[in-house]
Amino acid sequence: MNILVTGGAGFIGSHTVIELYAAGHTAVVADNLSNSCQESLRRAAQIIGTDTIPFYNVDIRDKAGLQEIFEQHTIDACIHFAGLKAVGESVSKPWEYYDNNIHGTLTLIDALRQHGCKRMIFSSSATVYGEPAEIPITENCPKGTCTNPYGWTKSMLEQILTDLYHSDSAWNIVLLRYFNPIGAHPSGMIGENPNGTPNNLMPYITQVAIGQRPELGIFGNDYPTPDGTGVRDYTHVVDLAKGHVSALSAIERGCGLAIYNLGTGKGYSVLDVVSAFEKASGVKIPYRIKPRRAGDIATCYSDPSKAEKELGWKALNGIEEMCRDSWNWQKKNPAGYICTEQK
Ligand code: NAD
Ligand code: WQD
């Protein structure tokens, strides 16, 4: 299939483009480069062994820009990664988050249906469960109250896509709820490229390891977890990328509306991740315990068995591989990508 990949220059998108080609699909990327560089796609093309990956510097709120893509390509399905994702920023800029993520997705949906393409995989998040009602979290766990506008955009977009499906069953839509993507392509050529101070744990750890930051702040050690630090379901980005290929097969089979957790089912605390990283890298990570971060929950990990049963997808990499590959990427690219294009 030929897949429109919105946000395909980003962290998860660039890894997914590689897995799409590996599975015999092709991709057309639409990205406004607001949080990425085209360099990720140049490198992805090298890994794939293709000259170029068709790329459009397009904002998904731009109707005419999307129209041009559909005029030039036959699109069989869309994998929709494009969105703003910084939790803290979304609290100070709610309008920008609702505009970018919700208005953007509505514009994209309209373009898709006008061109008769009613197949979408949507990047959702474990954040939609809020303070989860059960651990491990199955897809039957009710959605919860989000603590920030970013989370609400994911929750609302899931609802919008669900309502769309109920209004027109010609749509096939898969909502993928990701659990803490980390790691990088094992080549070390592509990886996570945070802008400024990382919000997430693993890029912060790798920047401490490379000497860019003096120490890691650990946000609370008084949670009701085995060592008091927050527990999460870290998932290797390459496994996550492969999950999209599996979801595409479900779409081809005519799955209707389907929801899957993509996680490993295992929970690791912040201190577990620090020691796994130290073991994988041989680098000591100095840390200091700090107050809890607003909006954080104690424990969040998935029951990923539905994806295994229905999609045949299972995360194959463990925390060792995740730490190894995050470190390999950071070591080979101490300053991330060097962006040549104008923002
Ligand atoms: P990312 O920021 O690396 O990638 C998102 C891409 O979308 C970027 O390349 C950005 O330039 C692009 N983009 C943003 N707004 C756009 C717009 N209006 N038009 C066109 N392009 C636009 O983030 P990521 O980590 O790869 O995340 C991909 C998706 O997965 C996002 O929707 C994110 O919310 C979701 N998600 C991420 C995580 C995570 O921890 N990384 C967890 C759960 C869900
Ligand atoms: C993991 C653990 C922190 C940084 C967020 C979003 C979620 C999803 C994934 C997009 C927590 C602790 C972190 C640091 C720390 N994103 N931590 N020091 O919070 O589980 O999820 O990213 O959809 O919506 O909320 O991930 O990596 O920020 O934190 O101690 O410098 O590490 O408190 O326990 P989180 P994270």
Structure keywords:
343 residues, 7-stranded parallel beta sheet, 14 strands, binds nicotinamide-adenine-dinucleotide, 11 helices
How would you describe the overall organization of this protein?
The protein has about 350 residues and is α/β, with parallel strands linked by helices. The chain contains eleven helices and 14 strands. The chain has helices at about 10-20, 40-50, 65-70, 85-90, 95-115, 150-165, 200-210, 235-250, 270-280, 305-310, 320-330, and strands at about 1-5, 25-30, 55, 75-80, 120-125, 170-180, 180, 215-220, 230, 235, 255-260, 270, 285-290, 300. Helix 1 (about 10-20) runs parallel beside helix 2, helix 1 (about 10-20) crosses helix 8 (about 235-250) and helix 9 crosses helix 11 (about 320-330). It is globular. The mean pLDDT is about 100. The protein binds nicotinamide-adenine-dinucleotide (NAD) and UDP-4-deoxy-4-formamido-beta-L-arabinopyranose. Nicotinamide-adenine-dinucleotide binds near residues 11, 83, 84, 85 and 125.
Strand content: 15-25%
Q: Write down the secondary-structure element order.
A: EHEHEHEHHEHEEHEEEHEEHEEHH
Mean pLDDT: 98
- Tell me which ligands are bound: nicotinamide-adenine-dinucleotide, UDP-4-deoxy-4-formamido-beta-L-arabinopyranose
Main sheet overview: 7 strands, parallel
Number of distinct beta strands: 14
Category by helix and strand content: alpha/beta
Low-confidence stretches: none
Share of helical residues: 25-40%
How large is the radius of gyration? 19 Å
Q: For the record, give the distance between the C-alpha atoms at the N and C termini, rounded to a whole number.
A: 31 Å
Shape: globular
Number of helix segments? 11
Strand order of the largest sheet: 3-2-1-4-5-6-11
